[in-house]
Amino acid sequence: MIDWDTHRIIDMIPSRDTNTVSQWLSTYPNIEMISRDGASGYASASTKAHPNAIQVTDRFHLLKNLSEVVDRYIKNTFPSRVEIAASTDVSEEMKCLYDTANRAQRIRYAHAKRAEGLTIQEIAYLLHSGCKTIEKYLAIPENEIPEDRHIQRERQHQEAVKHKEEEISDIKQMYKEGMCIAEIAKATHHTPKTVEAYLDPNYSVVSGHYDRKRYGKMAAYEKEVIEMRAAGRTYTEIYDTIKLKGYSGTVAAIRMYMQKERVHAKSVKRAEGKDIVHRITLTQLVYHKLEEVKLITKGQYEALLRQYPELAGLYSLIKEFHEILFSKKAANLNGWVKKASLFAIPELQTFLGGLNQDCAAVRNAIKYDYNNGLAEGRRV
């Protein structure tokens, strides 16, 4: 119990029992206003001890309870990686998949994101790594970070593409200078059919078979591996889990698969018109403004809400509830409750039930400035 005017602690009680709290409150006959959380036991104790006192439900606890309801709904409904329509701006998630194919790039990326203010957990989600791995990356001095080392297959592919581009350019120049296809074929040691293909403006220097996924020992476990890695599980933990389900490959194969998945994502995910948003980002948006959440862009956020309109409704519901609580307009609460009741989410309906039972105190929370702030986290 704290005096509102002096901010000083008057008394404390080591119990949450309704009767004990009621007796305790009764020893202070001059109480006119009681700010409390929404627990029914506190409401009953307050009413029993001081039936004429004005009771106020603490606004922080109201917002906290609503946010936790939406948080639980998201965690129970959405997978760890949510696919959405690709937006024009590239998210940190996709940039990471594009640009961190080797260890040196991953270490530098971790350092850069840490300097931007991201937490170790957020960086771990972006890099599909464990928090301990990120801590090791961050412990490496920047002047000791090794040079980039491309995946051998990717390096060979890039060199082959560059060579073919130069060769096709030479062939087009010959044709432009008046050489016929037969002459070009003889000079370049290609067949006339190959020269005709190279002269076709729609010809692609990248083989259609390149980066195509092949069926292997990992095939049946790919989705599960990505989800576990996104959740911060180590490669050894992932191996132990899928081995029990029949996986006969090695830990190294799992690590190589994730490395190729990052490269593969660059060419396939964007080509399919898809972006990836982590579920942790969806829950962060419950508690923070869009500009405060670093793992999603404005374009992706808009695409997410278009694809999942119920999410848009829930985010809007939290924002409106916050505005009502500080509006001094208790009459607006009824309309908000009606809107919230349209969502078929059991946890939300339970929250609304508690709101209706404590309706007078909730309205008083909107009308008055009193709250539990002075009593939270205090020590004698």
From TrEMBL:
Residues 3-123, 269-377 form the Transposase IS204/IS1001/IS1096/IS1165 DDE domain. Coiled coil: none annotated. InterPro entries: Transpos_ISL3, Transposase_DDE. This is Transposase. The lineage of its organism: Bacteria, Bacillati, Bacillota, Clostridia, Lachnospirales.
